[in-house]
Recover the amino acids of this structure.
C-alpha cells in the first residue's frame, strides 16, 4: 500500500543523516535533494582559481498512479585569473544522469567554506550516493518510479 503523499513529505527530514554532504527537503508537493559539492578558491603565487559545483535532484509525484519521476540539475562554474589573462567557464545540465567524479588539486593556499588552508582541495561526487537513499525511501513507502517510453517497452 502506498503511503499518502502528505505523510511521505512529512517524513522527508528522516532522510537527512549527519556526516552526509547532501540534504533533503519537502518543497510544496516535491522532494528536493541538494549537494553543494565544492566551493573553493585556490591562491597560487601568480594565479587565482575558483570552482563551484552544485547538484540538485527534484522528485515529482503522480498521485493517481502512485509513481514518481525526477529531474537532476548539475551546475559548475570555474574562474581563473593570472597576470596575463582571465577566464570563466560555466556548465549546466538538466535531465537524468549517472555520474561519478573525483578531483584533487595540489599547491597554493586554498579557501573553502571551512576556512583558509594549504591543504589540497579534494572532493568526490556520485549520483548513486544521493539517489540510493532517496529512491529506497520512496519504494519503502510504496511509490514506484515512473517508467519512460523505452522503460515501459523493455520493462526496465
Amino acid at each position: 500500500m502506498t503511503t499518502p503523499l502528505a505523510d511521505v513529505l512529512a517524513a522527508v527530514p528522516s532522510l537527512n543523516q549527519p556526516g552526509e554532504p547532501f540534504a533533503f527537503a519537502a518543497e510544496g508537493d516535491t522532494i528536493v535533494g541538494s549537494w553543494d559539492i565544492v566551493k573553493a578558491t585556490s591562491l597560487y603565487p601568480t594565479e587565482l582559481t575558483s570552482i563551484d559545483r552544485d547538484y540538485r535532484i527534484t522528485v515529482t509525484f503522480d498521485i493517481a498512479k502512485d509513481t514518481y519521476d525526477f529531474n537532476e540539475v548539475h551546475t559548475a562554474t570555474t574562474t581563473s585569473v593570472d597576470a596575463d589573462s582571465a577566464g570563466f567557464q560555466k556548465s549546466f545540465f538538466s535531465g537524468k544522469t549517472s555520474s561519478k567524479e573525483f578531483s584533487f588539486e595540489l599547491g597554493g593556499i586554498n579557501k573553502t567554506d571551512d576556512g583558509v588552508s594549504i591543504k589540497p582541495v579534494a572532493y568526490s561526487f556520485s549520483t548513486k550516493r544521493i539517489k540510493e537513499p532517496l529512491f529506497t525511501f520512496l519504494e519503502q513507502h510504496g511509490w514506484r518510479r515512473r517508467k519512460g517510453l523505452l522503460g515501459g517497452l523493455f520493462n526496465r
Summary: Residues 5-146 form one domain. The chain has one domain: 5-146. Helices lie at 5-11, 127-140, 149-154.
